[in-house]
Amino acid sequence: MSKTHLGHTARKRFGQNFLHDDYVIDKIVSAIQPDNGDNLVEIGPGLGALTDPVCEQVDRLTVIELDRDLAKRLRHHPFHADKLNIIEQDALTLDFSSLLAAMPDKEKKLRVFGNLPYNISTPLMFHLFDYAEHISDMHFMLQKEVVNRLAAGPGSKNYGRLSVMAQYYCRVIPVLTVPPGAFKPPPKVDSAVVRLVPHPTSPVNVHSVDTLERVCALAFNKRRKTIRNALKDCISEQDIANLEIDPGVRAEVLTLHDFASLANFVYEQGGDCL
């Protein structure tokens, strides 16, 4: 199958797969429920599969597009050009708090959505988590495996660092599964749409998010290791036991609350868990 769609060749380096299935598009837009007063931001609008139906419901949409050719197409859009605020930048480098500050209604938080390039989806979500206080919700098309990891709970084979950190910042709600045929060119994997809703208040008290991330990374780095072995450079077996956590278990059974307890202890002891 040709990788050219509507006159544009999908670029591998940008991880481009263009959504074209009307049923799936309608389901995603229905899940987003765009409202005219919203500070809507689309990451990677591409050929406008989501941009167009969203613009039909609202008067203003900010889009972030790295591909210069696609940004140019959007600037000359026959119907919606005047509704679009086009930011030609890599979303991974964008300051989303400044983006909100430039919105006409700064009192309303950002609503972010997009069909994310799968090669940058995880770092991009971590970048957005840094701005969670400025975001009311996010709707993303991702690799299905990534959505499974985001939503996984303790004891699941999909549970890992991404699950813990995503659930520290957000409520994670899988919305729908999308087959490869909904895209041109079709990716080699199933996709899924997820809704991420930042918590108004964190579900656990954490002294340092950096320490929480480092403890999670170490704990899950070698999944078959017990916590006592994985974290031996940060915290002693006795100290783990004193936190009412079994030092002989593996990371995959620990809850967000457990990880918060471990991270807070490490931080209080001045440990850096390198």
Give a verbal description of the structure.
The chain is of the alpha/beta class. It is 34% helix and 19% strand. It has helices spanning 22-32, 51-55, 68-75, 96-101, 121-129, 144-151, 161-169, 209-221, 227-230, 237-242, 256-268, and strands at 4-5, 8-9, 18-19, 39-43, 61-64, 84-87, 110-115, 135-143, 170-178, 183-184, 191-198. Strands 6-5-4-7-8-11-9 form a seven-stranded mixed β-sheet. A hairpin with a 2-residue loop joins strand 1 (4-5) and strand 2. Helix 5 packs parallel to helix 7 and helix 8 packs across helix 11 (256-268). The longest helix has 13 residues, at 209-221. The radius of gyration is 21 Å and the shape is elongated. The model is unreliable at 1-15 (pLDDT under 50).
Task: Explain briefly what this protein structure is.
The protein is of the alpha/beta class. It contains eleven helices and eleven strands.
Backbone shape:
elongated
Helix content: 25-40%
**Unreliable residue runs:** 1-15
Radius of gyration: 21 Å
Give the neighbour order of strands across the main sheet: 6-5-4-7-8-11-9
Key terms:
7-stranded mixed β-sheet, two-stranded antiparallel ribbon, 11 helices, elongated, methyltransferase
What is the strand and helix layout of this fold?
Layout: E1 4-5, E2 8-9, E3 18-19, H1 22-32, E4 39-43, H2 51-55, E5 61-64, H3 68-75, E6 84-87, H4 96-101, E7 110-115, H5 121-129, E8 135-143, H6 144-151, H7 161-169, E9 170-178, E10 183-184, E11 191-198, H8 209-221, H9 227-230, H10 237-242, H11 256-268
Parallel strand pairs: 4-5, 4-7, 5-6, 7-8
Antiparallel strand pairs: 1-2, 3-10, 8-11, 9-11
